[in-house]
Amino acid sequence: xxxxxxxxxxxxxxxxxxxxxxxxxxxxxxxxxxxxxxxxxxxxxxxxxxxxxxxxxxxxxxxxxxxxxxxxxxxxxxxxxxxxxxxxxxxxxxxxxxxxxxxxxxxxxxxxxxxxxxxxxxxxxxxxxxxxxxxxxxxxxxxxxxxxxxxxxxxxxxxxxxxxxxxxxxxxxxxxxxxxxxxxxxxxxxxxxxxxxxxxxx
Length: 202
Fold this sequence. Notes:
Layout: H1 4-26, E1 31-35, E2 39-43, E3 47-51, E4 55-59, H2 68-94, H3 105-143, E5 149-152, H4 154-174, H5 180-191
Antiparallel strand pairs: 1-2, 1-5, 2-3, 3-4
Helix pairs in contact: 1-2, 1-3, 1-4, 2-3, 3-4
C-alpha cells in the first residue's frame, strides 16, 4: 500500500480543492459584462452585481427565470461539493494515520480507495461543468451582437483549480494499492516454510 505521506498529501490536496470549489460557487464573477467604459455587470450563480465604482448586488429571485447554464452549473456544483464532503469523511476513516478500524487493514485500505474515487468524480464534475459554462458564455457572445461585451470571470479559474486539486487528491488516495500486490506476495513468501536440499554428508 502507499505510504501514509502520500495519503496525507492527497487528503490535503482534496481539502484545498473542496475549499476552492465552495469559494467559486459563492463568487459573483462567473460572468462579466461591460456597458461603456465604466459600467460593469457581474453575474454569479446566486446573485448579480452592477454599478460603476460602487456596485449594488441582489440575489436571484426566481430560479426558473435564470439562464439554463446558471441553473445547471449551480446544481452540479452543489452535487460536487456534497460528494467531496462525503469523500472527506470516508477518506478520514480509511487513512492509515487514523485510529479507525486498526484491526482491519484491508478493509481500511478499501475505504480510503472509495473516498479517493469519490473525490475523482467530484473533481471531474466541477471541471466538466465549468468548461460547459464557459462554452455557453462564449457561444452566446458570438450569437448576440450587442453593445455589451460578455466574458467569463475569475470564479471560472477558481472552479477549474478546485476541480484539478480535488482530482489530484483523489488520485493519490485511490492509487494507494499500487504496491499492495507486491507487499502481499512478499509477506506470503515469508510465511512459507523454507526447504533446503538434503546433504549427502553424514
